[in-house]
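HUMAN: Mind sharing a backbone?

ASSISTANT:
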Amino acid sequence: MANRQALRELQSRLAERLQVARTQGVAPSWLAVEAGGKKYLFPMGQAGEIFPWGATQAVPYTQAWFLGVANLRGGLFGVVDLAGYVTGQGTAPKTELARKESRLVALNSALDINCALLIDRLAGLRNQEAFSDFAERSPDAPEFFGNQYVDHNGASWQEINLQSLARQAHFLTIGA
């Protein structure tokens, strides 16, 4: 019960911050999420709707990081485990508590791909002022990685360019 209340409070704070940002003309830059113990930033213009993680229908003979398909608001979406895709490995099954915090973040419809990323936890909205330092993408990092940011607490956040991710041949090739 406490988890539901905490989730409602988080969603309420996010809605309030979005409303304040709209009225002040200042839009947040990123949706902050956590997956597989790592912290990621999704550009707000590339992220779509956020859904609770429900049942997915498994698809045989697919990559370990492709969890199947889900009906999200009447649309059929492929579901990708973000942590599994980034590491190239499958992830361990989640506990009931972890499943309750997990979310599906759909890619923006402008990217023209019906896909949702499974993340472990929403961490709110971030703008440039939330960070004290950044480093440009390393040449050996995946092409869809953007800059890496360090927040005022010293935590490292990796930006993921969802548009670039949606165009990766490996991302689009779900067959095992």
